[in-house]
Write a structure and sequence with these properties.
Elements lengths: L5 H15 L3 H29 L29 E5 L2 E5 L8 E7 L7 E7 L3 E4 L7 E10 L2 E2 L6 E4 L62
Antiparallel strand pairs: 1-2, 2-5, 3-4, 3-6, 6-7, 6-8
Helix pairs in contact: 1-2
């Protein structure tokens, strides 16, 4: 009776009182003996079943929402990677990968040409990069990860980063044509000179001054 709990002993005593009354002590001992024997027998059956069927072959799904990675293995590379310019930023977007838990972004800048990680553990399918705008060309790839590992690289997206101050010339208005430059003014002609033989009237001789009234003629020398 030493392996019985307190609650079990109380239950046995109550049953014994109801059934046997004054013979309670003796009956209680018998019931306790049979109950202990039954428990040992049940434990033996349980041990025998465990020996016959290894625990590795017994699986019970206790999750109401099975993991999306139940098939095992790393996710596939993301698809649909696009890169676009927005002022001084590069906006990257890609499609959702069904088995991905997180995404990583990698960038390649000449002249090295090798990809370096610039963002890890992204839960969304978009990323904004702020590279140096120096007239170079950069390329991007994205990978997907889950509990089983990381996918391969996606198809790369390449974009040209304009240098500071670079801008396209404004387009000419439709139908506009270049106007001809106005002709240079003709050289001034030389002014004609007066005199005979050149088709111009002769210059009139200047009139001689007359003597004013009251003026006397100069005295004649003898």
């Amino acid at each position: 009776m030493g392996d019985l709990g307190f609650g079990e002993l109380v239950l046995i005593v109550i049953i014994a009182i109801l059934l046997y009354g004054k013979d309670l002590p003796q009956v209680a001992r018998k019931l306790a003996h049979y109950y202990s024997k039954l428990r040992r027998h049940l434990n033996d059956i349980k041990d025998e079943i465990s020996r016959q069927i290894p625990s590795e072959e017994i699986s019970v799904d206790t999750s109401s929402n099975p993991s999306p990675y139940s098939s095992g293995g790393a996710p596939s590379p993301p698809t649909g990677l696009l890169a676009s310019l927005d002022q001084n930023q590069v906006i990257l977007t890609w499609d959702v990968e069904s088995q991905a838990e997180y995404y990583n972004v990698k960038r390649s800048t000449p002249p090295e040409g090798s990809y370096a990680s610039i963002a890890t553990g992204l839960s969304s399918t978009t990323y904004t990069d702020t590279p140096t705008f120096d007239g170079s060309t950069v390329s991007y790839v994205v990978t997907a990860t889950n509990t089983y590992g990381e996918s391969g690289d996606s198809m790369e997206a390449t974009i040209l980063l304009p240098a500071p101050g670079d801008s396209a010339p404004p387009p000419a208005p439709a139908g506009a044509t270049a106007e001809a430059a106005p002709p240079a003014p003709a050289a001034a002609e030389a002014a004609p000179t007066a005199g005979p033989g050149n088709g111009n009237p002769e210059a009139a001789p200047a009139p001689s001054p007359e003597a004013a009234p009251g003026d006397s003629a100069p005295p004649r020398m003898s």
